[in-house]
Amino acid sequence: MLLFKIFLAPVLIGLVSLAGRKWGPGISGWLLGLPLNSGPILLFLVLQEGRPFASAAAVGSLLGIIPWAAFGLVYAYCCTRLPWWSSMLAGWAAYAFVALLLLRLHLSLVWSFAMVIAALAAMLVVFPRPVYSDIRLPRRRYELWLRMITATAMVVTLTAVAKALGPLRSGILSAFPAYTTILAVFNHQHSAASAVLVLRGVTMGLFTAATFFLVLSTSLVRTGSVLSFSLALAAAGVVQAASLVLVRRHN
Q1: Does pLDDT of 2 surpass 80?
Q2: How far, in Å, CA of 90 to CA of 92, rounded?
Q3: Handedness of CA 225, 231, 235, 238 (dihedral sign)
């Protein structure tokens, strides 16, 4: 299983990065709306801890979308004025603050989903627009490999500590913006506008993640794991396809 984790993370971040090079940073961010990080983590939790634990963790992952989006919003506002490391720390601080607030809430699955959708819509309204006057630096030859190595380290670490945190906390932690951080930082080193486009694309794509977690959490307690993940992926695919029109308009 550890070897699978090590293999999956770099492949996913590598494909998303290559998609960004071909179709633009907004598209690579939008692809992160797919549960590329938390989805595999929830699958590992099913195998390690069972379906009830993973179902509860999926609710945490659903709520974790709000701090995930908060990271992107704060980073986007900071990156036009601050270097990448300051923007990253500010974004992580926003994530941690919002995540801690959510741990105090006790909402049903439906109300959690409604709150997530409302929060994403509000963030998109106030999201900053990219400024294209900044300097674009050339890409480094080893950048793709560095992205892949970083993604592997993050995913292995997150899954290692999940059991000790419990289902809700591990669910929220599974929505930690690991891949989002990688794409934001590396695009920021080329231009702040690229980072903003990536992060806005991520926010648009998070409606897909919300749908995935809603369906998965509901179905895991009623059906088998294979059918639950299949239904969740099918529902997420419909939402993802519908959101592509909006992303292309703003990319």
Answers
A1: no
A2: 5
A3: positive
Angle at 41 between CA 179 and CA 204, to 5 degrees: 45
CA distance 107 to 89: 29
DSSP for 49-79?
H-HHHHHHHHHHHHHHHHHHHHHHHHHHHHT
Most distant CA pair in the chain: distance in Å? 53
Among 1-5, 63-67, 78-82, 144-148, where is mean pLDDT lowest? 1-5
Q: Where do the DSSP E strands lie in the chain?
A: none
Give dist(CA 103, CA 62) in Å, integer. Answer: 12
Neighbours of 225 (CB within 10 A): 17
Q: State residue 132's pLDDT score.
A: 63
Q: Which two tokens stand for residue 126?
A: 């106030």
Residue 110 tokens read as 């439906």
- Give dist(CA 38, CA 58) in Å, integer: 9
Q: How far is CA 32 from CA 8, 10, 136, 222, 226, in A?
A: 14, 14, 23, 28, 22
What are the backbone dihedrals phi and psi of residue 134, each rounded to the nearest 5 degrees, phi first?
-80, 165
Answer yes or no: pTM beyond 0.90: no
* Paired tokens of 145: 């490999």
